Known about the structure:
The structure holds 2 protein chains of 2 kinds. Chain A is mainly α. Chain A is 72% helix and 0% strand. The model of chain A has no long low-confidence stretch (mean pLDDT 88). Chain B has 2 domains: 17-107 and 204-240, D-Maltodextrin-Binding Protein, domain 2 (3-Layer(aba) Sandwich); 111-199, D-Maltodextrin-Binding Protein, domain 2. Chain B is built from 9 helices and 13 strands. Residues 15-19 of chain B have low confidence and may be disordered.
Amino acid sequence: xxETFEFWASYxxxxxxxxxxxxxxxxxxxxxxxxxxxxLFGIGGAALRNSSLPPLKLLGTIYxxxxxxxxxVLFFIFxxxxxxxxxxxxxxxxxxxxxxxAGVWPPCPEANWFLGTGEYLLLASVSLGIVYGAFTANVxxxxxxxxxxxxxxxxxxxxxxxxxxLSRVHIRQMWVYALPGLSNCWLLLIKATSLLSLLQITxxxxxxxxxxxxxxxxxxxxxxxxxxxxxxxxxLLFYILVTxxxxxxxxxxxxxxxxxxxxxxxx
Amino acid sequence: MKKLIAVAAVAVALFSTAANAQAIRVxxxxxxxxxxxxxxxxxxxxLDIDVMNELCKRAGLECTFVQTAWDTIIPNLxxxxxxxxxxxxxxxxxxxxxxxxxADYSPPEASGFMMLESATVDPANLTGVKIGTQTxxxxxxxxTANFATGNxxxxxxxASNALADLMAGNIDVILADSSYIDEAVAxxxxxxxxxxxxxxxxxxxxxxxxxxxxxxxxKLDEALAAAKADGTIDALITKHFPTRKGPFYVN
Lengths: 267, 251
């Protein structure tokens, strides 16, 4: 490494790199928010799947079985665009009914719903939630069935209502069985956050591509060849760090969920 | 009552300032030095940004810049994500079918070929070579129309990715704007070379607007004509392209 200390220190002050470091927050936000939505959709899907009404059961089964098979890239591109166009169509009905009826897209510029990074991030989180909610629903459905029947019968024998059995006993005891599967879903979700650049968010992958590509223009910055391997290495280390921290977190959550459990040999 | 008056006063003030300066969004790519790029402070800079700032100042508009991907830049303009495209976009008849252009703020220039110093490619007779261009550019269309038979055509989503593949040896020659190529070759330290063979494609670089925005187009054209006449545009071109020989618009 023949470069000077100033060169390496400039990585901390260069505006383009500071923008790139800041964009790591998009990945973290998308992962956390997507995870929350996935858990929500997962619990909902598991509840539908285990319900006694045939239409709801069908809906739950379709969600958990079919959505898992769709590649998440397609869902990622489809859901935000379809949602945006649906909203713009509805807006166009009131703002420019002539354009909306003409069958041409876009109907008119006044009907445009401008999506900034924040809006795209929210839509991305919902898409992640829909796709990984299907996996989560499967995991939670299996975990709900793993709770020993004796526990539920004992709860009912105590006079608890159905809702109390569900919330105090069934769901509380389900976590130990669900957590290994849920940690799996969480790591898949983290990997899927690398697709944010499909939604015109200048995220870490796109930033790494733009910063690392050869630059031969003096005004744009340092002249260099293909340095993308270095930036991708940094991303690799970032994802490994996130995985390590997730493992630690899940171990802690599993310890919490194992308190007072009958067969608590898990740590 | 006092609070109501205060709120009303603020509202009136806000509305009046909004009425004074029309706010428009300008879409640019941010990955095509020196036309538009992100500088060391993380801000958009380049000839397109400087020209648009000048025109907006003269026309009394408030411009904010939006960075967007090149390959969907025209559909996003028509959808309303921004109001003007200023991204080193050449004026061509095909593009005129979709959008309107202001007058050109950079005169038509040729497109050239760039290759590695050690390459033995003859741009006048291209056979059996791999040609790289950026997706959706005039060079991409030209290559597809003229060089497709007997050669392999590869497109890349940014100009720098094409350059990366050229340096890695995955493609043999790049077809791009001469000003971009001259700059890259000059700064490559002898690793790249260009040739004297050039092709004339496109009719100068202009700003793109939606077909329905005739009023905004008139305002920008008026400001552009004034900026060309007093030499401001010439100075901006020379600032970003030191190797290009003027004068461009001043007689």
